[in-house]
């Protein structure tokens, strides 16, 4: 029987350091001493962040001799993607409404580029 993660994905990625750790591990597996070399915090602090990511299922560890290596486990991020995709439709609706507003407000034949400002006033 599999145990439930102690931290959820949302909790785990809430911290900018942990998001940075995930980015670091995207392309390759790394030992903790190499990972900690990328940060100005102690190896112990990096290990604590890795433990939170591991408890959320975002990072897996593997022993190679005396070394522990960490790698990204991206599957739990699908939960985040599904959650965000639901709200994406609201953003898309707002962008479409803004586009309609801008296009309706613009007189025909006017340039669609940005206005040039001269002495604090739009240039005519």
Task: Explain what you see.
With 124 residues, the chain is α+β, with helices and mostly antiparallel strands. It folds into 2 domains: 64 residues, Arc Repressor Mutant, subunit A; 31 residues. Helices cover 49% and strands 15% of the residues. The protein contains 5 helices and 5 strands. The strands form 2 sheets. The protein has a 3-stranded antiparallel beta sheet. The protein has a two-stranded antiparallel ribbon with strand order 4-5. A hairpin with a 2-residue loop joins strand 2 and strand 3. Helix 2 packs across helix 4. The longest helix is centred in the C-terminal third of the chain and has 29 residues. The chain is elongated, with a radius of gyration of 23 Å. The termini are far apart. The model has no long low-confidence stretch (mean pLDDT 84).
Architecture blueprint of SSEs:
Elements: H1 9-13, H2 16-24, E1 30-31, H3 32-36, H4 43-55, E2 59-64, E3 67-72, H5 77-105, E4 117-118, E5 121-122
Antiparallel strand pairs: 1-3, 2-3, 4-5
């Amino acid at each position: 029987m599999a145990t439930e993660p102690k931290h959820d994905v949302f909790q785990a990625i809430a911290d900018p350091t942990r998001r940075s750790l995930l980015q670091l591990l995207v392309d390759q597996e790394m030992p903790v001493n190499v990972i900690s070399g990328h940060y100005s915090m102690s190896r112990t602090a990096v290990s604590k962040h890795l433990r939170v990511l591991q408890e959320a299922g975002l990072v897996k560890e593997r022993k190679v001799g005396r070394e522990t290596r960490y790698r990204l486990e991206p599957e739990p991020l699908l939960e985040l993607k599904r959650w965000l995709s639901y709200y994406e439709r609201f953003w898309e609706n707002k962008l479409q409404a803004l586009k309609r507003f801008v296009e309706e407000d613009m007189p025909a034949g006017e340039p669609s580029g940005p206005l040039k400002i001269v002495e604090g006033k739009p240039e005519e």
